[in-house]
Amino acid sequence: MIYANYAATTPELSPVVVKELCEYVGGTHLNAARNFEGLEAGAIALRSRRAIAKLFNAPDPLKVLFTSGATQSLNMAINGFLRQGDHVLSTSVEHNATARPLEALRKSGVIELDWLRCDADGVLDAETIPKAIRKNTRLLVMSHASNVLGTILPVTEAFRIAREYGILTVLDTAQTGGVVPFTMGACCDVLAFTGHKGLGGLAGSGGFVIGEDAAAHIRPWIRGGTGSRSDSLDMPEFMPDKFEPGTQNTIGILSLAVSVEEILRTGVEKIRERECALTARFMAGLRELKKITLYGTGDPERSVALVSIAVQGYDAGEVSRYLFEKHGIITRSGLHCAPLAHKTAGTYPGGTVRFSFGSGTTEPDIDAMLEALSKM
Ligand SMILES: Cc1ncc(COP(=O)(O)O)c(C=O)c1O
Fold first, then answer.
1. Is the dihedral of CA 46, 48, 54, 60 positive or negative?
2. Does residue 147 line the site of ligand 1, with CB under 6 A?
3. Which residue among 74, 75, 93, 95 has the greatest number of ligand 1 atoms within 8 angstroms of its CB, and so is best to mutate?
4. Mutation test residue for ligand 1: of 98, 142, 175, 205, the one with most atoms within 8 Å of CB
5. DSSP letter at 160?
6. Does the beta carbon of 206 lie inside 6 Å of ligand 1?
7. What is the mean pLDDT of the chain?
8. Which 8-state DSSP code applies to residue 145?
9. How many degrees, rounded to 5, is the angle at CA 22 between CA 18 and CA 26?
10. How far apart (Å, rounded) are the C-alpha atoms in residues 162 and 153?
11. Contacts of 237 (CB under 8 A, 6+ apart)
C-alpha cells in the first residue's frame, strides 16, 4: 500500500510519539486545574504550548490555545470577532472550514463578504487587496496554502497590507504547519493550526495562536468551566482560560508536544526541502505522461507537497479507484471540502485526483505512482 493522502491526514505516528502516548495511557489521567494533581495535565499543555510557540515563532506560549483542530479554531476566531455590519475578505481557494462559517454569517445578514480572486493556479496578487477594502472591512481570513492546488499564498504581504488598514488577520495553517517555515511574530493576529497533518499529532488535536492585541478583541465563542474564577458566571479574561473551557484533550495535546519537539529537532527547513524534492520528482514525471492535466503552479517551490491532476477520459473517482484497486495507491478524489478552489481552478463540480506527500513518502513511492499512472 502506498499512502498519498497526507493533505487529509498523516496516517502514522512517529515512534517517539507512540512511546510517550502509551506511557500516558497506562498511567493516571488528571484534569488540569481541577485538583492539585491535575497540574500534570496543565504541565503537558504547557510543554505543548512551548513547542508550538517555538514552531511558529510566536512570542508567548500562554497564547497558544488548544481546540479540536483548525475547523474549531477558525470558527472561534470568526464568530468571536465579527459583529453586525462588518465586511470580511477571504480568498477564492478557501477550505469549507473558513468558507462555511463566513457564508453562514453572510446569509444571516450579519456580515458582508468578498472573496479575493486567485487565478486558476491559485495564485493571489496581494496588490488587489487595497481595492477590495471598504470602510467597514474588519477581517481578512486566508489559508497559507490551498489544499486543492497546493499553491502557497502571499500571506505575509497580504497581512502587512491588511494591518495597515487596521484589519484583523487570521491565518489557516492546516496545509503548512510543520512543513513550511513560518514566523508568526507580528505578521498575523490569529494562526489556526491542526494537529493531525504536518504536525504529526492525533486527530482531534489542534488549536490557534493569538497575537498580543487580538485576544482583547475576540469574544469566547464556546463558554464553560475553566477551573479558575469559578465564582463568576463570565469567562475569565486571562489567557489561556478565556478560550479553553471544558476538559481538554490531553492525550491529543501530548501527541502534539512530542511530535512538534521532534519536528523542531529535525528542522522545518529540512522537512520542507525533502517534501519539495519529492514534489519536484512527481511533477517532472507527470510532464512525461500524456493525457494528464496538472493543476496549480507546477512549481514545487511555490507549492506544498500536494499535486492535483486530471486524467483525460476518466473522472476523478475512477482514477482514484483504479490506483487503489490495481496498485494499492491511496489518493483522494473529488472536491476536497473546498468547492471555491475548484471553481477557481475550473475543476468544479467534477473535482481532481489529489496526490499528497509527507513523512512516510519515499522516492520509490513517487516512481510507483508515476508508473501506475503511465499504465492507465
Ligand atoms: C486548508 C484546510 N483548512 C482547514 C482544514 C480543517 O482542519 P481540521 O481537520 O483540523 O479541522 C483542512 C483539513 O483538511 C484544510 O485542508
1. negative
2. yes
3. 95
4. 175
5. H
6. yes
7. 96
8. B
9. 175
10. 14
11. none
Summarize pLDDT for 198-250 with one digit per residue, the tens. 999 999 999 999 997 899 999 999 999 999 999 999 999 999 999 999 999 99
Q: List pLDDT tens digits, range 36-81.
A: 656 688 999 999 999 999 999 999 999 999 999 999 999 999 999 9
226 Cβ closer than 6 Å to some ligand 1 atom:
no
Q: Is a pLDDT exceeding 80 seen at residue 28?
A: no
Please say whether the beta carbons of 353 and 317 come within 8 A.
no
End-to-end alpha-carbon separation of the chain, Å? 18
Task: For CATH 3.90.1150.10, list the domain ranges present in the chain.
Answer: 2-10+268-375
- For the Cβ of 272 lying below 6 angstroms from any atom of ligand 1, the answer is no
Query: What's 3-41 look like in SS3?
Result: ECECCCCCCCCCHHHHHHHHHHHCCCCCCCCCCCCCHHH
CA–CA–CA angle 159, 162, 165 (5° rounding): 150
What fold is seen in the domain 2-10+268-375? Aspartate Aminotransferase, domain 1 (3.90.1150)
Residue 101 φ then ψ, to 5°: -65, -35
Instruction: Mark out the alpha helices in the chain (DSSP H runs).
Output: 15-25, 39-55, 70-81, 96-107, 129-132, 155-164, 214-217, 250-266, 268-287, 316-327, 339-345, 363-375
pLDDT digits (tens, 9 = 90+) for 148-183: 999 999 999 999 999 999 999 999 999 999 999 999
Enter the CATH code of domain 15-266. 3.40.640.10
Q: Enumerate the CATH 3.40.640.10 domain ranges in the chain, comma separated.
A: 15-266
Task: Check residue 36 and give its pLDDT.
Answer: 61
